[in-house]
Amino acid sequence: MDRKHLVEEMKKKILFRCKDEEQFYLYLYLSLIEEYDDNFPAPAGVSFTETYLPKITYGNIEELLEKAEAKGIERSRAFMELIKHELMHLINLHPIRAASYLKRRRIIPTDDVLNVMNMIADSICNRYIDKKFVDSVGGVEPDATNRTFEEIADEFFANAEKIVLSGGDSGQGNDTDTNGNSGGVGQENGGNKNNSKKKGRGNGKGRKGKNNGNNGGGNSQGQNNGNVSGGGGLSPNDMDRKLIRELVSNPDPNAIREIEKQIQDSVRNLIEKVEKAIGNIPGEIKEIISKWRKCEFFKIEDENVLFTAFQNIERMFVDVSPIARYPAVLPVYRPYSGSTILIIVDTSGSMSSEELEYGFYVIKRLSQKNKILVLQVDTEIKGRAIEIERWRFPDKLEVKGRGGTDFSCLSDLKNYIPATERENIKSVVIFTDGHVVAFPNTNPLPSAAWFGITTDAIPSGPKWIGWHRLVKVESD
Q1: Quick one: which of 405, 351, 356, 355 has its CA closest to 381?
Q2: What is the pLDDT along the chain (476 residues), one digit of tens a residue?
Q3: What is the distance between the alpha carbons of residues 336 and 313, in angstroms, rounded to a whole number?
């Protein structure tokens, strides 16, 4: 029997054999778009189409059903539990939450990191399915602490080896170059620091069929203290890694929120349709949905003012225009090039990495042809200005969160800027939370236009700094 016929046979059986409390999962499952992929690295997985409609992909489900059957679990029952597991990934929004988590903490989504994220997500999904089935296929041990996905990840990465790499290009690599490293979700049972081993047991072949190594055979050293454990038989790589990597590597922090909003709407619409069809939905599903976070987007108020300054656009009015009729007057913009932008980052404030990253993204987007220098300041200037060439902010940037900032040290600003750049700086942008106790008495770079971007209060300071708020706007 080929795979498609096997799936259709399983559908017929669960239609007649599923329990009353499983009707919701059955109808939700039957509402998904389906595809078959011989190279899919898991028995099945839920992801999204290009328009973010939920879909299920079938891989080698035969092996999983055989494992469960060998342990005394009827094949249609095993199939139903597998489907419930995958639907829980969907309802918990695990792919988008994994991407959001890694992006916020600036963790590069390597194969090992994604294995861990998948394992954490599995431990949550397995709370809701038959423990006997999980054990029969060597699945991840269900998390019994009722913690969130992010809380479990926080504990793991707090105890893991230093894999948080600030700055740089995240999301390097893709699903075509795993080279045998995308092993099964493995054991994370380290009692000793530096001694936990991750032993995968999956045999996935990589999404594009190029993963030909011993999948999951190697050891991955870490410092996990052993709160997430399990084998890889259930779903070693069933989260959409391509989507996660694309989102983490996107330079615009708002992009991930826009997709999260589309995915939330898509999943919510599907659930509402199922609810209308069967009359109700399980309490655990209502609880999960109630905890979905509202999508908030970053926005810098009066961004056009920054654009004008960064581009050195001089606004003029003329009486004659090829498209204007007398006495109409149209504005004409004349751009200049070759200027440098200096960014001053308040590292003692409480700006989050996401807020800073969005601010840097906006500046890079508005000033793609400009050179950008960065200085870090709290009560003193932290070293000489460095030039950045990437979308992300500098590797060594670290926000301490100590509170009030003394910008009076900026009076010596020129000493920290390369001599060849001092006269070329046309715009200075300050990133701060607004809690500034002092500024220089005089403008240290009077030839430049000064702007401040604040996430909280607009500080009382010199008039030569024009302030803009970086705010979060909640989606409709």
Answers
A1: 405
A2: 689 999 999 999 999 888 888 999 999 999 999 999 988 989 999 999 989 999 999 999 999 999 999 999 999 999 999 999 999 999 999 999 999 899 888 888 999 999 999 999 999 999 999 999 999 999 999 999 989 999 999 998 887 654 444 333 433 333 333 333 333 333 333 333 333 333 333 333 333 333 333 333 333 333 333 344 444 455 557 788 999 999 988 878 888 888 999 999 999 999 999 999 988 889 999 999 998 988 878 888 777 767 666 665 444 434 444 454 545 555 544 444 457 889 888 877 666 667 777 777 777 777 667 788 888 887 788 888 888 764 444 555 555 445 557 888 899 999 999 888 888 888 898 888 888 888 998 999 988 889 888 888 888 888 899 888 888 887 65
A3: 7
> Which has the closest alpha carbon to 454: 366, 381, 369, 346?
346
pTM (2 d.p.) = 0.68
452 shares a domain with 384 = yes
Residues 67 and 86 occupy one common structural domain:
yes
Is 458 found in the same domain as 397?
A: yes
Q: What is the number of structural domains in the chain?
A: 2
Residues 253 and 320 in one domain: no
Domain with 396, as residue range(s), is: 298-474
Out of 240, 269, 293, a domain closes at 293
- State whether 200 and 148 are in the same domain: yes
Tell me, yes or no, whether 382 and 464 share the same domain: yes
